[in-house]
Amino acid sequence: MSARDEVLGRVRDALAGVSPAVAVPAAPRAPDRGDLVALFAERVADYRAVVTRCASADLATAVADALAGARAVVPPGLGLDVAGSVVDDGLTAAELDALDAVVTRARVGIAETGTIVLDHAPDQGRRAISLVPDLHVCIVDASQVVADVPDAIALLDPARPLTWISGPSATSDIELDRVEGVHGPRTLHVLLVG
């Protein structure tokens, strides 16, 4: 018998005859915040991100404007032609570092917190492309915006890798001087479609 089996056996013995825990009550729901898309845009902007609202028909132009000539990497399933971009086919960290920007879509946007969640599906690409380039242009459809974190969790697959983004990457030193871009993109530009 291994030490693990012995410990688990002792736990099972200790729990014999104990009734199961009571059901956990549901989390309280956030009050109705009205226009979730407007709240999302406001909260994202509070994090020093750039927010541009556009119609689906204007998305390609909005992406081009957000990139302003920057050399970008895109995931293979983006579903949008981005002029002059490089499709990620397993680019190395050095190759990603040589690019200025990344364009991805998102899985969900959370209005209450202004957070964007990527689950790294083909339209979002692997985690490295959203962390290495200095500019992240993220496309969020208005229909993807939910009220709060519990609503987002209900839509996410816990087996997938998740990246939660609340503004540009930032940290503060001991003097509380804010430094952006240390652990990810220095600039976040959200294109809110719809």
TrEMBL record:
Domain of life: Bacteria
Domain (LUD) ranges: 94-193
InterPro entries assigned to the protein according to its UniProt record, in alphabetical order: FTHF_cligase-like_sf (IPR024185), LUD_dom (IPR003741), NagB/RpiA_transferase-like (IPR037171)
SUPFAM superfamilies reported for this sequence: NagB/RpiA/CoA transferase-like
One matching Pfam family: LUD_dom
Protein name per the record: LUD domain-containing protein
